């Protein structure tokens, strides 16, 4: 967002045809191994499939080596290839030594693409089941089917319609891969005969395996399949993803509610311009406005959206703003924008909290698909903290401390202007029940065991010391760290040297790697920076954690502290329940102030029909207030202040709310010492007074 201009009125949503996507930029050259050994049924499509992949390679920057010789599966030979395609393999095709080499290749960062009968392979090798995602169970006769494209942001499925009708041999699988993989497409069993998996029948999916990637499609039985443009594009997208020439969020995904996937019910335009709606895709049309979801405000949630820009375009996703009416500047001034444009300054570019905090630029660049290709954001909002994931990788972590802004509220998509073209797909949300985070921070110098590195007294360090004198091969161990449920790690580091990597391991200094942090040169040995990395395979409960350090040269970096980012659910008590409450006025004796703090949703406080009015509660002792929840009756406050006091006479404004539209206002992220809490209304939303069913206060 460069600047939002105020404009009156909303422009109606237009329905138009999408323009053609821009051409894909050429990938850096890479190498692909196509493996088609069979120890069971042999498909007559292997030869044409191999040639199709050769043709794709010739047109898309990769070379192809085809083999049916399992002797190619050595550590040295596999290192030549960015990905390996299992093309209609069947049966037991690798011996134990070859299996070990291939597993090491995948876990170390290699790619796997499984086509059709690749799921009918290596039944006795547990790692292969993990890699492929599921084993073959059965299939009916070849017939026409409708495939439902569930994820249209992945490079293998972005080109497909929501419903793709084609003819092939259709596998049933022994298990459903959804719990461990991101399902990209399913078969609609009502459109053919012989399906045995029911309403959720995955046919295409992707996943991460440590540092490696896996993609599988169940299509690819017939020779004619490999001549179909749609399937060839799917195969190319899967190869590009596995070879790390395109990025996607392939984490498992369940429990999300669709906000937009073709239907604009619940959405409104604020300000000029609009979005066209075609092929379950919103595309910006002119103006400088905001398309916002008005059906509900959200507090703690995971919001995911797929987006694409063309050229040097500009857009963003807004979160945490009150009802903007016809003025999109309300979202600018009271919410936060998660930027999409990658060409602006660091705090105003892709992954940034616009104008407030830059993303981890190195992580952003490593996981950002270029203009013309789809990307996926996850915005994980927990209270007043938001974490930004780009294509499944954590790139920003920001906590709101501005009382004039909030992270709970509405969400919206920006249409930036006539020269900026942005598209959005599949906007979905999963509410988290208001769970805060219970992070675990460890001072790096508080190691239980260490090799090489030493504690170092340093200005600016939290607790006064860092873990310094770090050379390649050094490590530090920390016993009994609570890591269960952690999804990411953040480290505070400083480096005037070459930087390097921090590998997070469990059990020992050679144990499994949970994640890897990349440490840059931060600018000097006095300039601290936070670096972030996702975690996988985290054990439950407590564990012995080891940091191992790699890099080139000497004097790599210092580590000040590191934090495991994890959610938890605390005990929540309404501090205002049945406490003494008073008000500036009452509409009638039947609506006293006490009725707003009695936990009943049928009794209420109602004021006189005038501005301003207030209601306050005496908590009985001083608390740190972090949340105030209001449940309005039909007569509500569209503008009010949450005020706190330790003595009942001197008041501090903890938050100002404007543009409210009644219903539930759950104000989280407060941090005020108070015995008394007051709601001071300045603008009524109706001709009546202020009317509250519930006035709840939370804190510790």
Automatic annotation (TrEMBL):
Record-linked CDD domains: CBM6_xylanase-like
Any Pfam family the entry gives: F5_F8_type_C
Domain F5/8 type C: 568-700
Annotated InterPro entries: AL/BT2_dom, CBM6, Cellulose-bd_IV, Class_I_gatase-like, FA58C, Galactose-bd-like_sf, ThuA-like
Domain CBM6, residue spans: 440-565
Keyword Signal: yes
Entry keywords, A to Z: Signal
Signal peptide span: 1-25
PROSITE patterns given in the database record: CBM6 (PS51175), FA58C_3 (PS50022)
GO molecular function: carbohydrate binding; hydrolase activity
Domain of life: Bacteria
Keyword Signal in annotation: yes
PANTHER family linked to this entry: GALACTOSE-BINDING DOMAIN-LIKE SUPERFAMILY PROTEIN, SECRETED GLYCOSYL HYDROLASE
Listed name of the protein: DUF1080 domain-containing protein
